[in-house]
Design a protein that fits this description.
Blueprint lengths: L1 H12 L5 H4 L3 E7 L5 H4 L3 H12 L9 E7 L3 E2 L2 E2 L1 H13 L2 E7 L2 E11 L2 E2 L2 E5 L4 E5 L25 H7 L11 H4 L2 E4 L2 H14 L4 E5 L6 H9 L3 E6 L18 E5 L2
Helix pairs in contact: 8-9
């Protein structure tokens, strides 16, 4: 199937990198993958890509020859692909590149859809960033609310009364117990995801990209969006939640090159 699609791509756009091929238009779509609703991700990568393309098509300025979707996430556990990255890589290999019809203003054109995991920055594809998924990390900054706890049904003899002391001293209140905070509270973390995405927004806005699409509802990427807007890049922001809107205080006054839409 993939070999057939690749033949279609050659037929549509030519098999050599001529001047014509190098001038093909491309829209880069930067996707904070885990920020997408789990109900969409559970249906598979093809469903996610279809939802994104369906939602952004009315807002883009034109139909592009190519769409390159970059998925950001914790893809490396130490120097090895994380389990999630392995599954997504298999889906990508099975389904992409793909050729499909993109509709804009009642016109349809054939376009190439390609998907990649963002292992590196747009500015330096040769340098992979490892250790972006870290398991069993000790949570930091956790503290207890004041007692009695809200909604507690038995504040005078609450079973959780030991929690404030445990979080403060980082060890079990029972002096005969050797358990520490690290033994009990752990979480898995993704690292560098927001900063990679932000860096790529900025890089693309300086690289003569007239239009960039970002898929996330995370506020941490706004320094990158603001930089792109300052560079007069048309920024299409697809929120991953249907009721999400960008707070007005993030959007520069009078800006005309920012479009926000919601994933449905």
């Amino acid at each position: 199937m993939i070999s057939f699609i690749k033949k279609q791509i050659v037929t549509i756009f030519g098999g050599t990198k001529s001047k014509e091929a190098s001038s093909l238009s491309e829209l880069v779509i930067l996707i904070d993958y885990d920020n997408i609703k789990s109900i969409f991700r559970q249906r598979g990568l093809v469903h996610v890509v279809d939802r994104i393309m369906l939602n952004i098509s009315p807002s883009i300025s034109k139909v592009y020859n190519r769409y390159r979707l970059r998925l950001y996430g914790g893809w490396y556990e130490s120097n090895n692909l994380s389990r999630n990255a392995q599954m997504l890589s298999a889906e990508i290999s099975s389904n992409y590149p793909d050729v499909r019809k993109i509709k804009k203003n009642d016109k349809e054109s054939s376009s190439i859809i390609n998907v990649e995991l963002a292992f590196s920055l747009e500015s330096d594809h040769k340098h992979k960033l490892f250790n972006t998924y870290r398991k069993n990390r000790t949570p930091h900054g956790i503290r207890s609310a004041k007692r009695p706890f809200n909604q507690c049904s038995n504040p005078k003899s609450c079973t959780l009364d030991c929690i404030p002391s445990f979080l403060n001293k980082k060890k079990c209140p029972d002096h005969t117990c050797q358990a520490s905070l690290n033994d009990i509270l752990i979480k898995n973390e993704q690292k560098l995801v927001d900063t990679m995405l932000t860096s790529d927004i900025i890089f693309l806005s300086f690289r003569d990209n007239d239009e960039v699409c970002v898929v996330t509802s995370d506020d941490d990427i706004w320094p990158g969006i603001n930089t792109a807007l300052f560079n007069n890049t048309q920024l299409i922001h697809l929120h991953t939640h249907s009721n999400r809107k960008t707070p007005a205080y993030y959007i520069p006054h009078g800006v005309q090159n920012y479009t926000q839409i919601n994933m449905t």
